[in-house]
Structures are given as structure tokens and as C-alpha cells.
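call fold(seq) -> C-alpha cells
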Amino acid sequence: MNSKNMHTMLEFLGIMLLLGQSFCVVQGDVHFYDFVLEEKNFTKLCNTQSILVVNDSFPGPVIRVHKGDTVYVNVHNQGYYGVTIHWHGVKQPRNPWSDGPEYITQCPIEPGSNFTYEVIFSDEEGTLWWHAHSDWTRATVHGAIVILPPVGSTYIFANPHEEEILVLGPWYEGNLKELVDEAIETGDDMPHTVANTINGEPGDFCPCSNGTTYRWMVDYGKTYLLRVINAVMNAELFFAISGHNLTVVGMDAHYIKPISTGYIMISPGQTMDVLLTANQSLGHYYMAARHTQAKTPPLPDLTTSMQLQFYNTEAIILSHHLLLFQVHFLSTWTSSLP
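ret:
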């Protein structure tokens, strides 16, 4: 084959490859979100402090799409310093300029300005999350991304009765940015959390937290899809539910062969899709997450939990932090954790 024919053949193959890719892409809908970054006061553990959040909420708003959709997020920075937003786990094919790492794909969004991200979902399906990508700002600037199956299709497992998002997050005392900047300047240790949270709440076993306890109603005998996100800064978490098995069906927005287990370990930034069937005797059950610890003397036990309490055909799930409750509860399920 001469060089001219070879060139023609390569052109033909290239065109066919591009056409094949275009046919394989899932054509989805387009969604628009506005994120307003602003300092807001939150009161937890008897103290009120200002933290940077999106749309006045901690955790931030949920982005909900179908596989193959595209999202435009207009981020308005009304805070005091530059910030970027990263779409954790979204592959962004041929679109790196909206990926979000500060000084890698863009400069920070300066106070008083805005930037619109184009977030292209391709083959992701399941749970991911978004977060700030500027120093430790993601401790308070983060939220869930729910990617449903394409319109007209279903999950690869039996449809759950309902789903619930569980964001396992940190809570710090003081101005976190100032603490981090000081630690970098002096070479001191980085800040440590004073509590863990589930969906932004340390829970009713912590000081001044009783009135804000997170509650979730479920039906006895039904199966639920838990979308678990580890938004803690730098800690792996063990997660378990007293008296129940978990079935892991997805990780980082991709399905896996189902794994039945008594507990999971979830790394920082990782997401898991977990099926839970409320099939035990009516009573009180707790789901809890706690740090792995390999330090001597041991770190304070920053265990976070949610209580599953059955009433006839219903159950109430309560979220709380177990610094004081570990004597009463941890002994009933710690044996199932490493």
C-alpha cells in the first residue's frame, strides 16, 4: 500500500472512530445551578462561629442528574478569599478547564466575582460529590452529586424503596483558614476536628445539639439505598449499622459486584452506594462512623452515629456524635469493627 492510500485509510479510520464515539455518548438533559459562596454563622457544640458555605447550607446543595447529563454551575464568590470548586470523580471528557483544582486548571474565583463551570457527566452512575479545591476550604464547602440511571432505565439491582444521602463530615473550632495558614507558617501540626457530623449535625449526645438532631423516617421491611460520602479531611472511617448487614453495590459512581458485609471502611473523598434492609426486630439500632486510629496515646474517639428506632411499621433514624455515648453503645457493636 503506497503512502497516499495509507493516508486515505487513516483518515477513514479516524472519521469512523469519531462517529463511533459520538454514537456511544449518552445524550442527556442540561441543568443549571447557582452556587453562592458566603460566610454564615452556625451554632454547634454551644459555640457560634462563621464558616464559608454554599447557599447558606452545610453540607451544600445536592446536584441531581441522570447519566449523560450536563450541568452548568455559576459560582458567585461572596466570601473573603479566592476559591475553586472541584467535581470529584467526574471524568470531564475533553473538558479539563472545568475540573476545578486551584492553579492547575484555573485561578481562584476572587471575592466579588463569579465563574461558570460546565460539568459533563459521561459514564458515571451512582454517587459522587463536589467540594472546594483551595487549601482546607472543602471542610465546609462540599455537597453530594447523585447520578441516576439514564431516563428509561433502572438500577442493576432491585429498585430501593427510598434513598438517603449520608455526608460524613468534620467540624473544627475557630477560623479554619487562619489555623491552616498558621500551621503552614510555623510548621506546627494541622488542625484536628473537635467532632464529626452526619449531614452537618454532631447530634443530641453532644453539648447543645439535642434540638438539631437529624431524623429520617423509614418503613420496616423495606430496602433503602444509602449514598455514603466521606467528606472528612484526612481520615479513613469505619461505618457500621448495629444488627444489620450492608450490601455495597457501588463505589465512586461505578457499580461493583455486590459485597455483603457487617461494616465498611471508607477513605477520604470516597463514595459508596450501600443497600440496607430494615429487617430486624422492632427496637433501637445505631449506625456509626469512626476514625481509624494508629496513634499512641490514642486520639479522642470522634465517633458519629445515627439511631435506627422502629415503631410498628416505621423507624426513625437519629444522627448524633458519640463522645459520651460510647460506654452505652459501642460495646454492642465494636466487635464487628477492626
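The longest helix spans residues 3-24.
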